[in-house]
Amino acid sequence: MTKNPLLTESTLPFHLPDFAAIRPEHYLPALEIGLTEARSTYTEIAELTEEPTFDNVVALLERPSATLERTVKVFYNLVSADGTPELLALEATSTEKLTQLENDLYLNPAIFSRLDAVYRGRHEARLTYEQIRLTEKLHQRFTLAGAALNDSDRETLASLNLAIAQAQTAYSQQVTRDLNAAAVLITDEAELAGMPASNKDAARAAARAAGHEDGWLLTFELYTQQPALAYLSDRAVRQRIYTASVERGSGTWSKAAEIAALRAQKAALLGFDSFAALAVADRTAGTPEAVEKLFAQTIGPAMRNADREAHAIAALAAEDGIDTLEPWDMTYYSEKVKARKYAVDLEALQPYFELNRVLENGVFYAAHRVYGLSFEERTDLAGYHEQVRVWEVFDADGSPLGLFLGDFFTRDTKRGGAWMNTFVDQSRAEGTRPVVVNNLNIPAPAEGQPAFVTFDEVKTLFHEFGHALHGLLSDTEFRSLSGTNVERDIVEYPSQVNEMWMLHPEILPHYAVHYQTGEPVPAHLIEAVLAAETWGQGQATVEYLRAAALDWAWHKLPAQRDATPVEDPRAFERQALTELGLWHELVESRYRTSYLNHTFSGGYAAGYYSYLWAEVFDADTVAWYEANGGLTRENGDAFRHHILAIGGTRPIPESFKAMTGRTADTAPLLKRRGLI
Q: Active-site residue numbers?
């Protein structure tokens, strides 16, 4: 195994994994060695005869095996971004082994007793602030994981954890298969009326890549409202696409119910009324009541807005002879209302949104203006796929910060959606600088053609790079407190703030130019977009709230040790939305139960509310920027110092107050979404 590149630290810049040398057969042996190293560390702590201290307990728990960390980061990044059959075959086994390791750690009373001793004496031990914070977070993690349970309950919980992990893997892999299978093949070009030429070329290329000699393959995004619904004028084709999207779910309905029941059993073992109560215990919300209060503030106004929008949409659709509006008409006619009322023409905008220019002259340029960063593409460094690009990131003083990898195009081996991950975390103690990656699912262009992004995809680029900045600008002692290692319900805050630069008058002209003529995007097109900002927010907010409410409802099921899966998940979905006042005949959830990956496999269990929770801080931060001079390095440096650099070393609500002088107010959020 001396030739296994996962067993030693990479010698490439910033310890970028040597993807060219890593093979599928390397993962399992490296994982086994890492597991053995970690268990050896745990044994060392459990058998400790000296006085427990930060150095001989907490510091070891922070990184029990460098081999394991390195292997896990590479493997799970690739399973999501380039999940070949070989990797997918390893996923279930790897997840089971890691779950068993977590059980060995969190359910070991000897280890917990040593940690508890350090925790109780943390203030007398002259620890640094970060050492105290790390000790407290680890102690809380152990407690919520069942460390204080009796022997019998620990054994039961270990079995439950394994069953949950297995079910989550099965759900996630099936969602990806369902997503690929849902793609719609069009063989009559006339049915593509209204589709921009660049999208049509991409659909033709997708069809050929999938083995179809003729036709156009409309590949799907993970969410319900597929982009094609906004511009295809053929109503029957829209219905076909919409139906294929919302009816996804080959076995995932029952698997979601199974996962929810297992989590309810886990919550009961740990003494909580529901899994939702367990989930928020270590988040900034703190209690289910706080989450439900936010729902209560937004559901009613959002539904009223959605109804007003539906009325206007129906009136316009009636001009085309449509007497009864259907869900597959909503996005199409919503765009037409926007075009008529506000003169918004998204198709006319697209030639001004060429991917490379948006990225380098928009996303990167905004980071340069706000934080002083600069970027240099490293064509000498290879990513894990030929489509991945690598940039070195430099601070304002020219010093290196880390690496940014961009993986922007959809493919069959990539899971739907958009996300940020790290290959290497920042740590002053270990002398490491971050290596981060952004994944999107933009349709790849036809060979030799430029790649274009939609208006929404431009927003996604800025959003995901906000996560990347959270990782790149981290400045903490310990890797497990760095970057995005914050409370789950606040992790979206910095990324949502970064969206504010997308249409900023000093950023937009720098990237939004015609890909052929170089002419800047016409002012009237952007003015129309700005004027229409609140149009469609009713529908968008209801779509989001329905998904968040579904997540919440599944995890508010009563905690019972003998909880069984809901017999009819579809009926449960409808009942939950109806009881919360979110049932709408024309507006579907952003994600339904059968493809709600965030909840049932993606780490957001009882946490999809987080986007709205974080937006409270985001909207108020935008208001703070605007009140203090807008786009200035002084403001950027303040946001960097108080929010981006601190990782999980300090609760972000406290840092928000230190930066702004006040607690976060919901009014800017409600105003942004047109709810007041």
A: 464
